[in-house]
Design brief:
The protein has about 500 residues and is α/β, with parallel strands linked by helices. It is built from 20 helices and 15 strands. It has a domain of about 150 residues: Isoleucyl-tRNA Synthetase, Domain 1 (Orthogonal Bundle), CATH 1.10.730.10. The strands form 4 sheets. A 6-stranded parallel sheet has the order 3-2-1-12-13-7, sandwiched between helices.
């Protein structure tokens, strides 16, 4: 049976241009989608925009435009950026699209019919940035400021429809604790479990003070607010055929600031609808810049202009590798220009150098034709073992969504290959006719190792790894990535011309 893989990013607020945080999440999802496509899995990768809510209304008012104009303008930037960055999403959902609005209305109708939505009233504190109500105790503990943004909480009082979240809390807690719904990293899972055990209230899901949103199907004076609207995108984006193929989602990839909503509200909603839960929710960390929270006023904000400058200098794949390598996936990350330069040089001096010297030596000593190997020495056997171990470890890293490891392990294989070349000294072997067989073995094993490293890097460095493989005259046919990984390059294989994969940056 063909394996299916469905991955989503959060849908992003288009109240401003994308920045490095949006790019990081989307790029990580892209790497996972590319890996699964290479494995031959039927893959669906969804991203999109969350265009309703008070933030959009306020930003539009500040810019003296209506919310739809603001949304259309910024959504176009998101969509064009993902094309520019070669993001391989299969779909892009907008919460203002007809398919989404119709889907949300049907979801709310079902919840109304089951009695899981009821009319009530709310008075209390509200975090506008997070679009979340805050209890009096929590508000007081936070000095009546947002725990995320630090902005002042707002006092709200109005009639509102509620979702019976409390009805489903025990079942949600059981699903998370049993890992039927995997929440990762483990520390974030523990945070959610602890907070759930402290008790939660029913969830306000409508506003009568807003007109920008999807109307409640039973009461058009109210619009559906935020979390039923936003979270439902993961299913409203799927038509009936795709829903049969891809639901439940394999991974919802999100930032840690919205974990609670995904790990508690979303599974409760799905339980209300009688739908399967997603298999996993993975919440990654936040980006800082040079050790401080990003701020335009401080001049350390990494926005779209800065990202484009780095891509122009260090290549798109150089940026991809830097973002993945910056920290173990799930941890907070810190952007520094020095680290970006360091990681680019690592690609050039380790991966690029290994490829270049291997191709040049085979060209010089064997007329560009891969010689046969007769591995016999400890170093040979160690490199062969390293090749096999790396392939197993990379698969395990993707399974665990350990993306830093998935990016670094193939580069470390190239580093080990450079050490092997340095220790065997093929340029000396080439001077002794009696050591021709030994020279051939070294060159063959070096080519086997660097080709495996490049193959394993295709999800991370799709352009540069493809260019490197092309220099070795290796073509990965659709659906044959694993087959290619499992086969040795045959003796007699003709290599192409070597060119620097990562030219030096002046």
């Amino acid at each position: 049976m063909e394996t299916r893989f469905y991955i989503t990013t959060p849908i992003y607020y288009p109240n401003g241009e994308p920045h490095v945080g949006h790019i990081y999440t989307t790029l990580c999802a892209d790497v996972l989608a590319r890996y699964h496509r290479l494995r031959g899995d039927m893959t669906h990768f969804l991203t999109g925009t969350d265009e309703h809510g008070i933030k959009m209304v306020k930003t539009a008012a500040e810019q003296q435009v209506d919310p739809r104009t603001l949304a259309d303008r910024n959504v176009a930037i998101f969509e064009s950026l993902w094309r520019e960055l070669h993001i391989s999403n299969d779909d892009f959902i907008r919460t203002t699209s007809d398919r989404h609005k119709l889907g949300v209305a049907k979801i709310v109708d079902r919840m109304l019919a089951s009695g899981d939505i009821y009319l009530g009233g709310y008075e209390g504190w509200y975090d506008e940035g997070q679009e979340e109500f805050v209890t009096e105790t929590a508000a007081k503990d936070q000095a009546y400021k947002s725990a995320v943004s630090g902005r002042a909480l707002v006092r709200y009082s109005e009639p509102t429809y509620f979702f019976r979240l409390t009805k489903y809390v025990p079942a949600v807690l059981e699903a998370i604790e049993s890992d039927r719904l995997r929440v990762r990293p483990e520390a974030r899972k523990n945070e959610v479990v602890s907070k759930l055990k402290q008790g939660v209230d029913d969830l306000s899901i409508s506003r009568s003070s807003l007109s920008w949103g999807i109307p409640m199907p039973n009461d058009p004076k109210h619009v559906i607010y935020v979390w039923i609207d936003a979270l439902s995108n993961y299913v409203t984006a799927l038509d009936d055929d795709r829903k049969k193929l891809f639901w439940p989602a394999d991974v919802h990839l999100i930032g840690k600031e919205i974990l609670w909503f995904h790990a508690v509200y979303w599974p409760a909603m799905l339980m209300s609808l009688g739908m399967d839960l997603p298999k996993e929710i993975f919440a990654h960390g936040w980006w800082t810049s040079h050790g401080k929270k990003m701020s335009k006023s401080m001049g350390n904000f990494v926005g779209l202009e800065q990202v484009r400058e780095k891509v122009a200098t260090y290549s798109l794949d150089g940026l991809r590798y830097y973002l993945l390598r910056a920290a173990p996936f799930g941890n907070d990350l810190d952007w520094t220009d020095a680290d970006l330069v360091k990681t680019f040089n690592e690609l050039a001096n380790v991966l690029g150098n290994c490829l270049n010297r291997t191709i040049k030596m085979i060209g010089k000593y064997c007329n560009g034709v891969l010689p046969p190997a007769a591995p016999s020495e400890a170093g040979d056997l160690q490199l062969i073992a390293r090749i096999n171990e790396t392939q197993v470890a990379v698969d395990a890293a993707y399974s665990a969504i350990a993306l830093q490891q998935a990016a670094m392990l193939p580069v470390e294989l190239a580093r080990a290959t450079n050490v092997y070349i340095d220790s065997t000294e093929p340029f000396k072997l080439a001077k002794d006719p009696e050591k021709l067989s030994r020279l051939h073995t070294v060159l063959n094993l070096s080519a086997q190792a660097i080709s495996r490293a490049l193959l394993l890097l295709l999800p991370v460095l799709p352009e540069k790894a493809s260019q490197g493989l092309a220099q070795m005259n290796i073509v990965v046919k659709p659906g044959e990535w694993q087959k290619t990984l499992g086969e040795l390059l045959p003796a007699g294989h003709t290599l192409g011309e070597g060119q620097p994969l990562f030219p030096k940056v002046l």
